[in-house]
Amino acid sequence: MAVTNSKKILTFEQLSSEITAIANCKVLFDFPNEPNHVTERQYGFLQIDRPTIRYTAFTTPHALILYSALFKPECALQTRLHSPEITLMITTMESQSVCFNGSWINTDQVAIVSSRSEVPFALFIPQNTTVILSEIAEPSRKLKSFSDSLVPVAVSKRNLDKFKAVGKFVFEQPTEKQGHGGTKAVLDLITVLLDELPPLRPQSLHGPSRRPRKHLMTKIVKMMEQKTMRAMSLKQIANELDISTKSINLFFKEYLFIPPKRFYLLVNLFKFRNILIQGKCSSVLEATVLSGVDGWSRYSERYQKLFGEKPYDTFMKSK
Known about the structure:
With 319 residues, the chain is α+β, with helices and mostly antiparallel strands. It has three domains: 5-195, Sandwich (Jelly Rolls); 210-257; 259-318. It has twelve helices and twelve strands. The strands form two sheets. The chain has a seven-stranded antiparallel sheet. α4 (157-172) runs antiparallel to α5 and α9 crosses α10 (284-291). The longest helix has 19 residues, at 260-278. The protein is globular.
């Protein structure tokens, strides 16, 4: 099957929209302000369709944070691949690595997320990394077990290296006449994987209040997204979940490489920006109310530092 899209260079928001549609996730960044970095096209992106797999490769010059409470594939993809169940395989080009649920992916490992398992996941992507997302029509129940483990999975290095080599060639020189060598390598990799035993999930966070990691991730992030700026209190969240604030801090340090309060600020800044971009509010003030923003002058300054423009400039662009 031919390449469905030629390689593109996207802005951050275009890339975020594409990745969100694939993995049902939120995409955040947190780096010093660079002029026009949000509007510049600097993220390479390529998507290829095969009969049973859709590949998406993207490269980022900046570190990104992806988190999802639930992997839910697109209905259109399920229809095209003739499968209600999709498995997302995450890997990188060559020897690059990303951090999946607090564990760095080795050169002989991939991350597996099954639509059957309904588990959350977090992905930290260092700068100058090329990531490959493979959406595979594979109904095997055993892949759910690998997904439930919440850790990177060891696979056939021979097949993985072949897949990465083909992926690198296609990403750098996309044409309409690419063969199916990469797909064969992936299907062989999955076949071998299904003969292996799923890994044991690592022990949950240490402390007097132990909880399965997947429940911590889902509940803490969901609570942070639902609360307003004024209502944010790490101690309050810890009390409601019957865990310690130390456990929450360890969780964010291990999974997202960012303190929980900074993460919470980013979630609200991105939420505020999305409301401005949608153009459905009549003023910046209305957007602050919808976002639950408190302490407007200080918040506006933080917005400008992160996105390189004032909230009013973003608002006017949406008109």
